[in-house]
Design brief:
The protein is an alpha/beta fold. The chain folds into three domains: 12-233, 3-Layer(aba) Sandwich (Rossmann fold); 238-338, Ubiquitin-like (UB roll), CATH 3.10.20.600; 347-439, NADH-ubiquinone oxidoreductase 51kDa subunit, iron-sulphur binding domain (de novo design (two linked rop proteins)), CATH 1.20.1440. Helix content is 40%, strand content 14%. Strands 8-7-13-9-10 form a five-stranded mixed β-sheet, sandwiched between helices. A four-stranded parallel β-sheet has the order 3-2-1-4, sandwiched between helices. Helix 6 crosses helix 9 (214-226), helix 13 (347-361) runs antiparallel to helix 14 (367-384) and helix 15 runs antiparallel to helix 16. The longest helix is centred in the C-terminal third of the chain and has 18 residues, at 367-384. It is globular.
Length: 449
């Protein structure tokens, strides 16, 4: 194992002969954290998670303990736990490894979280295409119920919680928590307006609901196992624990790498762990946290100030792998799905690919997103098809600026951010692409990501 890695969530997966069955999980310390949790008061479990500094691993990075505190406990309505295992962000594939290869780790975290918020019903909303993963989860739930870890009277505590696996419809917007809730209720996955529909107050069935990511549930298991204060020592202040980086694209060793937050840089990830670029090529850019995060270009410098007041002046290779550092460089950690582009990639082709995806996935509820995503896709496709005009490049940016910040959910930002970041950084290349495609001198089969 490379020294830069610190497997926590993937720790069991690295052990020879490890299997998905409950007996194997128990031999490796499984469900001991749940035993510890149900012997504590629910509010004390919440305090441990808050002390840990754990941030959600679904993309937004919101503090998990703080989210739990927002739960409306005075309404008299039942509370629900919803686990987002949709994982529909292009470039992201970390959660499915937990589901397919270590499902009980996530289920233990679900049981701990449900106890902490006193939810007697939990749902795992899994992407519809993960048919085999849904079967694995259902089998693991039955195993856990048979041993008293889920279902009625968990570990003799008198507390009961049922877990249901719900397969989604394969829609990107249903990765947004309120769109997911609408889908879970059997309706079209239209995101809800916030306020008033904050899930912690008006969530599933208009009841208080906590929506957490699949990996976040696995992290909760480790918070309880080691204690919040000890967990907080992993990583750096403001970003504790480990981050799983799913690197794809044009590197020698694409794959999943679990690294302690802030203890390595993009350079170490891409060159030391991933082996650098393919032979004869050089890196051009990365999309750091899944396709909706803003692109970073090799060769540019990033200057600014961190939340702690520290000033920085970094090349891309120097950026530490933690949420605050990456945000200070104008993008986001997101889901850790890093897409690598090298000098063989024609950037207008890559942008056209992204624009086509987001135009296809818009739910159509908000006019700026519905119309703007389609315009962006048509213009970028027109350039690639040879009908582009010089004014198309600034027009792409203008349209993106009219979409961002004007929609109910963050799909508007997902549409706009790739364009808003890529056009200024690759403007000259885009203008050259317009000319080359118009003149018929562009590559016949450009490399796609």
């Amino acid at each position: 194992m490379p020294a830069l890695e610190r497997p926590l969530i993937y720790g069991n997966l690295r052990k020879p002969g490890y299997t998905v069955d409950l007996d194997c999980y128990l031999r490796h310390g499984g469900y001991e954290a749940l035993r510890k949790a149900v012997a504590m008061k629910p509010e004390d479990v919440c305090k441990e998670v808050e002390t840990s500094g754990l941030r959600g691993r679904g993309g937004a990075g919101f503090p998990t303990g703080m989210k739990w505190k927002f739960l409306d406990r005075k309404s008299g309505k039942p509370a629900y736990l919803v686990v987002n295992a949709d994982e529909s962000e292009p470039g992201t594939y970390k959660d499915r490894q937990i589901i397919y290869r270590d499902p009980h780790q996530m289920l233990e975290g679900i049981a701990i979280t449900a106890w902490a918020i006193q939810a007697r019903q939990a749902f795992v909303y899994i992407r519809g295409e993960f048919q085999h993963g849904a079967k694995i989860l259902r089998r693991a739930i039955e195993e856990a119920k048979a041993k008293g870890f889920l279902g009625a009277n968990i570990l003799g505590s008198g507390y009961s919680c049922e877990v249901v696996v719900h397969r989604g419809g394969g829609c990107y917007v249903c990765g947004e928590e309120t769109g997911l809730i609408e889908s879970l209720e059997g309706k079209r996955g239209y995101p809800r307006i916030k306020p008033p529909y904050f899930p912690a107050v008006l969530g599933l069935y208009n009841c208080p609901t906590i929506v957490n990511n699949a990996e976040t549930m696995a992290q909760v298991r480790h918070v309880l196992a080691m204690g919040g204060a000890e967990f907080a020592k992993i990583g750096i202040p403001g970003d504790s624990g480990t981050h799983i980086w799913g690197v794809s694209g044009l590197v020698k060793r694409p794959g999943l790498y679990e690294i302690e937050a802030g203890k390595a840089t993009f350079g170490e990830l891409l060159f030391d762990l991933c082996g650098g670029p393919l032979d004869g090529r050089t890196f051009k850019a990365i999309i750091p946290g899944g396709s909706s995060t803003k692109i970073l270009r090799f060769g540019e410098r990033f200057k600014g100030k961190l939340p702690n007041g520290q000033e920085f002046d970094w090349a891309l290779e120097d950026i530490p792998l933690d949420a605050n550092s990456i945000a200070a460089c104008g993008t986001g950690l997101g889901t850790g799905g890093t897409i690598v582009l090298d000098d063989s990639v024609e950037m207008i082709q890559a942008l056209a690919n992204l624009n086509a995806f987001y135009a296809h996935e818009t739910c159509g509820q908000c006019t700026p997103c519905r119309e703007g995503s389609l315009w962006l896709s048509r213009i970028s496709k027109r350039i690639v098809a040879g009908g582009g005009r010089d004014e198309d490049v600034p027009m792409l940016l203008d349209i993106a600026n009219q979409v961002a910040g004007r929609t109910i959910c963050a799909h508007g930002e997902a549409v706009a951010w790739p364009v808003q970041s890529a056009v200024p950084k690759f403007k000259d290349e885009y203008l050259e692409s317009v000319r080359r495609h118009r003149d018929g001198t562009a590559p016949a089969s450009p490399q796609l990501i």
